[in-house]
Amino acid sequence: MTEVPGDSYDLVIIGAGPTGLFAAYYAGFRGLSMAVVDSLPEPGGQVTAMYPEKMIYDVGGFAEVRGRDLVEGLVKQAAPWNPKYLLGRKAEKLETVGDKVELTLDGGETLKAGAVLITAGIGEFTPRPLPAGDGWLGRGMVHFVPALAAHAGQHVVVVGGGDSAFDWILALHPVAASVTLVHRRAKFRAAESIVRQARELGVRIITDAEVTQFIEAEDGALEAVTVAMKGAEDERLPANAVVAALGFTADLGPIESWGLEIDHRAIAVDSTMATARERVYAAGDVAAYPGKVKLIATGFGEAATAVNNIAVALDPDAHLFPGHSSNAE
Ligand SMILES: Cc1cc2nc3c(=O)[nH]c(=O)nc-3n(C[C@H](O)[C@H](O)[C@H](O)COP(=O)(O)OP(=O)(O)OC[C@H]3O[C@@H](n4cnc5c(N)ncnc54)[C@H](O)[C@@H]3O)c2cc1C
């Protein structure tokens, strides 16, 4: 397959979750040039957004692997093939022009491709907002923590009461100067064991309370937050960072209007992972067929099937079987 310059690729992959990242590796292995688009600012999909610190026990070859390490491994595995990552960019529109597919991103940029592989998982994530943090995203407030080191020595306030909020607490506790959890209810949605772990670490947990104000230092950085507590005086907490872990909503959004066969927020595919549209394939959580099991392991297999079939669709003289990677230089 030929190297295509600029905004034109053999394959554009929509979604940099585990399936899309593994597809990027496979596309490189098949000699395809590729771009990977994701609306999140970091690769890793659900793993990065929701459980980077959790151990995963059902990925082949790993007795256990931390979510964050799995994503790092996937990015490293694809790196030799130089995928062009377009992160923080949403795929909006898909058109077929001649024998090419044209994908328009938010902002209007168009990518041309021989084929598109949709690995959009459960869709685009939209974090549930923390109203007091309006205008603070990226200036002190984050919805998830891609790199713990960014919070070394900081006072961090985590807002939320689910598994992710507690995951962040446990992960940040060893590196941050202080970690405080603020939750607006008395009860948590998180697993009891993880709540116990946080308590045993001595993390301050404030319940029946809400962060109501972000306080700016003279240099514009976040300095503190105001916490309103039921039946008590407001408290000012030092805060260099607020992790708003209030959960995400997920939505296939524009993909639903691309003329694909969609059922229960998933795209129907055949055994080659082809969709109802020519040159458009799907794999991972977003792909549906009878007997589908939504797991990382399944997504890896589907990525390999999709990309090898795409290689043949793009070049009918190519072999479907890629050869064994163990024979590659
Ligand atoms: C808490 C939790 C624990 C889990 N534990 C396990 C486990 O132990 N083992 C296991 O196998 N599975 C587990 N899963 C499921 C696993 O995470 C998913 O099966 C896997 O992430 C699917 O990968 P994917 O790449 O297909 O999709 P996703 O990980 O959902 O990635 C899809 C990506 O596509 C992007 N996207 C969507 N629409 C667009 C668009 N229009 N434009 C640009 N980008 C877009 C999204 O931003 C996202 O990054 C767990 C899930 C959760 C929530």
From TrEMBL:
FAD binds at residues 19, 38, 46, 51, 91, 125, 285, 326. Keywords: FAD, Flavoprotein, NADP, Oxidoreductase. The keyword Transferase does not apply. Its cofactor is FAD. Homodimer. It is an enzyme of class 1 (oxidoreductase). Its EC number is 1.18.1.2. GO terms for molecular function: ferredoxin-NADP+ reductase activity; flavin adenine dinucleotide binding; NADP binding; thioredoxin-disulfide reductase (NADPH) activity. It catalyses: 2 reduced [2Fe-2S]-[ferredoxin] + NADP(+) + H(+) = 2 oxidized [2Fe-2S]-[ferredoxin] + NADPH; [thioredoxin]-dithiol + NADP(+) = [thioredoxin]-disulfide + NADPH + H(+). It comes from Amycolatopsis iheyensis. This is Ferredoxin--NADP reductase. Binds 1 FAD per subunit. Residues 9-297 form the FAD/NAD(P)-binding domain. Belongs to the ferredoxin--NADP reductase type 2 family.
